[in-house]
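Job type: complex structure
Entries:
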Amino acid sequence: MTENSIQSPLALMSLGDLPATSGGQTGSAQARVTSALLRCVGRWGLSKTTIEDVAKEAGVSRATVYRLFPGGKNAIMRAAVLGEVRSLLAVLTVELSGVDQVEDCLTVAMNHAAQFLEQHQALSFMRDHESGLLDQLLSSEQLDLLFLTAAQVMKPVLLRFMDEAAAIAVGMWVARLVVSYVSEPSAEFDLCKEQDSRRLVRMFLLPGISAPQLKHQPS
Amino acid sequence: MSTEVEETRERIMQAAVSCAETSSVGGFSLEEVAASAGVSRTTIYRYFPGGRPQLVQETATWEIARFWARLAEAVEDLPTLEEQLVAGLVIGRKLIQKSQLLENMVDSEMLELVAAVQPSEPLVHGVIRDYMRDLLIKEQAAGRLRPGMTPELGADYLMRMTLSWMASPTGLDLSDQVATHSVIRTQFLAGVLIDASEAMPDPELG
């Protein structure tokens, strides 16, 4: 590996050590509670949503909600965010399995993630009316977890195009850009438009992935 | 505003910052700030007629500007953009961690002050974008921008990357110089500067 290639200390770390899916499996009690919270937030925001509302929406008792999430509303919200990110990444992984060019792969990942977040009702409500609360949700620790999760899930897809260190680093890189452009929109790059995502990939990402790290694609 | 008046204002705001840093839960009082600044309460009200809320608000804005000015000053003598970005990331991360620690100790009104230097603050975006733009105008003059790159495009991108990495340097040990330089060269600068990284052959942009 040359000095200029992407190096990732993460490659040395076991990604398997990450916390288990905090959103819980689909259909689990945890997942029912987190998606109930998101529906409430999409309707009237996080600050007006009570545990009572969430319990009613999820069809469980308040005691059950507190047993599942002793940390209360904020803990449910953090789990919900991570759960949403995981389900987005699961969908992306499937969509990307048939893509055979690295440029297309990064473009689609960025474009679809941005569209998902743009159409997300709970997120939209918070961005428009509760931006302070949204900032708190995107704390350092939460961002760490979010970027690590993105790297973990994107890795198998990206390994088709590049070595392991690059695959981990590029997965996090894409996640950083999506979070940045969704939370602070740019007039220059609207990642919800495919051509803008592609332009960003060509302009900043591809030049940073050095040739030795890329696997040669059959033409 | 005369220099003397400005100096007194700054001394009061400086005192507010240090009181915020040292005060226990419950925050500081105007008396503490007055004592620390060596002025009377009446003087504080002359400069900040709105009292404590106005003092906190103006100190927050002042602290943002100072935070980034300190950072810019710390890196300005370094020879290359790469070195400036590496140093800026390392120092900026330390300053942010320090202010995050403060959040646990101060009352809710002071949160405004410590939150002011956090990367999510919109005011911060403009300040860094302008700063990066000035750096890139120099790179452009030296003929080092990649074809199609402009100081504006590059500055917006570098602002985003800097804030993202300062908020969460996960995956990177910032005390590892080689690794940090590598991230700056590949993820920050490869698309911006001509010689930033061993660029891969031009992808076929068909």
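Summary: Chain B touches chain A at residues 100, 118, 120, 122, 125, 146, 148-149, 153, 156-157, 160-161, 163-165, 167-168, 170-173, 176, 178-179, 182-183, 185-187, 190-192, 196-201, 203, 205 (CB under 8 Å). The radius of gyration of chain B is 20 Å.
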